[in-house]
Amino acid sequence: MLMPILEHEHRDALQLAMSHLVHEGSFAALFEAAVDAIVIADDRGIIERVNASCERMFGYKRGELVGRNVSVLMHEATGEQHDDYLLRYGAGGAPQVIGRGRQDVARRSDGSEFPLHLSVSEFTAEGKTWYVGMIRDISDLVAAERRRDELIHELRASREQFRLAATRDALTGLANRTQFLDDLDRSIGGAVPAGAELAVAFIDLDRFKLINDTQGHDAGDELLREVGRRLVGTARPDDVVARLAGDEFVVLLCGEMSRASLTAELDRILEALSVPITLPGGVVNLTVSIGAALYPADAREPEQLIRAADIAMYMAKREGGSSVRVHSAEMTEYLSRRDMIERELRAAIAADGLEVHYQPIVRLSDWSVRHVEALVRWHHPVHGAFSPADWIPIAEETGLISAVGAFVRQQSLTDLQSWDALGRPPMRVAVNISPLEFRGRNLAQSILEQIERSGLQPARLLVELTESALGDAAREIVDDLHVLRAAGIETAIDDFGTGHSALSHIASLPADVLKIDRSFVKPLPGDAGSRAIVEGIVMLAHRLGLEIVAEGVETTQQADYLTEIGCDFGQGFFFARPMSSDQLVGWLERVEELAA
Ligand code: C2E
Ligand code: CA
Ligand code: CA
């Protein structure tokens, strides 16, 4: 590409040039017009003649070059080589091309350097030997080559990046889902002959969304990176740690494993992640839920194995977080049952399949009834009268609880209106609210709107919430209860005594009524311990201006005893079972007749 002249043509041209050298004829013009720099030196390398291109290329006047060694034109390092070159080939007789395509570095008069392409020919005539060097500045070519190399390098780098993006999680640098599935697949392939088991641990951060929302996304990202680092820190050499998505991590645990040793392994991970993490916004006491599944006992396919571990994680999360569970067949059974109930419940809600029953709450001093509790009823096609205690938790898990709650409140308001229309003295209805109904929505506001649309006084409704719902992390619930109470809706603490808050905690609860759980009422009046507890609660609650309802009153003795100790209300089968709106009206009329 550089020297388009063919080798022998080149030689002929030189011969021609040389033969004219002595005579200085038209050759001079040709010599000067050459684009390449031409240097003619004797057999010792002393320059005899250069052309105009050489002057331009090297920045010398020809007078400055003639008489000097050709090495003046070369980079120091290559100058010597050049001499060697000449020495080695310098003794030849006939004109010959002794060098072509040498690529070297040339040096200009100002010391700057450029890459050159040099071809040297030896020419002997009349007993004298010359060396003719033709020099081309190949800076452009070298630059182009360098650029091409850079491009190739960039291409390689981006191809590598591409490969990483396809297999790595960008945030944590861990393997991503694709890579993890690949690794899992490979491990399963290798694990079968060895007979060794392997396990997948599924790790989900508890309340990550809350941290992300309150501390910001940068803090959330940092938290995820730290979790990744800790997981890698606890992993053994063959384990694979990956982030599947969001705050979900998985670890492939390799090697021999039993359910017992797996649980120990999971505990170790749980512990490593439970060390407080310092973020710019403060220290986070992270907890995680971990589930694991064993190959081949729990599943044989990679996706199924992850799914089985996910189910176990879900069961761990249901325990309230910060726990580990190993997959079992019952878990899958539970979930398929749950899925079925969810589908049926959704259909029941859509088809008006739910009903509300009411259980009277009786004032013990005069047996008057101004107040009932609304209890939802679902006549299940298979399970028949299906206790809400069995399906409310599923409604809570699946989010259907909001629809259930809204329905119960709406039906209660409608029934209140129908009782009013009968000219009955105004009743009040207590509705149960699940803590999960507060999640992510303005529950107080929507309750108040429901009441406003009904045209009834807000005080006609009460809300019942369990003591555990008002635990430590329930700020938004407490705020909502204050809003409801300010609007005139009383609140009752349900199942009181079953939570683990101290009695003194009652003082700080935004409540008007305490409902003593039926587990304390059941042993009454015989059991001294229960008597002490119930009497203590009644006394304390009264001091604090709260009213008391005793739940689960089933016997005359219980009713008498509760009346005696000053408990305000009783509720239970002794007085009445929960019943439909129509049945309730009939029941109330009979009670009123008896009282008259
Ligand atoms: P809860 O709020 O403690 O409701 C009282 C439960 O005790 C009712 O069970 C009632 O039928 C039962 N009960 C009443 N008197 C007696 C008695 O003398 N002895 C015994 N052994 N039990 C008695 P139910 O209707 O099966 O409801 C169970 C739970 O389901 C309720 O407990 C409540 O936590 C929940 N629930 C019911 N309806 C709703 C609702 O509309 N929304 C929400 N979120 N939860 C509800
Ligand atoms: Ca209740
Ligand atoms: Ca209760």
Brief description of this entry?
This protein is an alpha/beta fold and 596 residues long. The strands form four sheets. The protein has an eight-stranded mixed beta barrel with strand order 13-14-16-17-18-19-20-21, surrounded by six helices. Strands 2-1-5-4-3 form a five-stranded antiparallel sheet, with helices on both faces. Strands 7-8-6-11-12 form a five-stranded mixed sheet, with helices on both faces. A hairpin with a 2-residue loop joins β7 and β8.
Walk me through the structure.
- The longest helix has 29 residues, at 139-167.
- It is elongated, with a radius of gyration of 46 Å.
- By secondary structure, it is of the alpha/beta class.
- Residues 1-7 and 85-100 have low confidence and may be disordered.
- The strands form 4 sheets. An 8-stranded mixed barrel has the order 13-14-16-17-18-19-20-21, surrounded by 6 helices.
- The protein binds ligand C2E and calcium ion (2 copies).
- One calcium ion (CA) is lined by residues 373, 432, 464, 494.
- One calcium ion binds next to strand 18.
Cα-to-Cα separation, first versus last residue: 122 Å
Oligomer category: single chain
Number of helices: 20
* Number of beta-strand segments: 21
Global structural class = alpha/beta
Q: What is the 3D form?
A: elongated
Bound molecules: ligand C2E, calcium ion
Share of residues in strands: 15-25%
Give the proportion of residues in helices. Answer: 40-55%
Largest sheet, strands/sense/barrel: 8 strands, mixed, barrel
- The main sheet orders its strands as 13-14-16-17-18-19-20-21
If you average the pLDDT, what whole number results? 86
* Radius of gyration, whole Å: 46 Å
Low-confidence stretches: 1-7, 85-100
